[in-house]
Amino acid sequence: MFRRRTALSVSLTAGLLAAVPLLTACGSEAHPGAAAIVDGKRITVSQLQAKVKDVREAQGRSPQGAELVASTGRLSLATLNGMIFDRVLERGARKAGVTVDRDDVQKWRSAAEERAGGAARLRAMWLQQGIAPDAIDATVRNQLLLDGLAKKIGADRGSPQGQQKLADALATTSRAMGIDVNPRFGKWNDKQVILGQAKDPWITKAPATKQQA
Questions:
Q1: 23 within some domain
Q2: Do the domain assignments include residue 5?
Q3: Would the pLDDT of 199 be above 50?
Q4: Average pLDDT of the chain to the nearest whole number
Q5: Total number of domains constituting the chain
Q6: What residues contact 47, with CB distance under 8 A and at least 6 apart?
Q7: Is the pLDDT of residue 21 over 70?
Q8: Residue 24 is part of which domain span?
Q9: Partner of 58 at 20 to 30 A CA spacing, among 120, 159, 164, 184?
Q10: Based on C-alpha coordinates, what's the Rg of the chain?
Q11: Is residue 39 part of a domain?
């Protein structure tokens, strides 16, 4: 459940953004400027920077800004992990014939907003997890793709066995994509489908919401 946090009057300052420094533009020698190569395509450091900055600016506009920054201290790692995972999931879902349209996303989001107590409250919940307001629809879509893929392969996400079956399917896809991460960010683990020490290997559902039937 979402926990109420103590309100702090925090404005967006250079010091706030510096709590987790933005990345420099240099990459590995093999892939200069790249944070990762996924299926032969680059995720650039500048793309990663932009996503991190987007979250930090949104957090900075919140009365709980300082606490939000502190609770997402490894945002660059978590963001890159998500960017890579998104591509693995997209390919795995497409291969399995799983699709999600805009109506599906809007229905899920509307139900989530109602359960959370409003759109603003849901945005605050996602922001706690390092997801900027303009990235919510994409995150919901990925959640639905993950649920759809699990259903397609007969994996019950509510059981350890089902989670393992889903992980194995995504691991197979991940290995086929030749994921190469700039060493400064760690190493991609195909077996666990996760980057280094990123906290959450799977998409985190918004608190206080339930998946639609």
A1: yes
A2: no
A3: yes
A4: 81
A5: 1
A6: 35, 83
A7: no
A8: 19-195
A9: 184
A10: 18
A11: yes
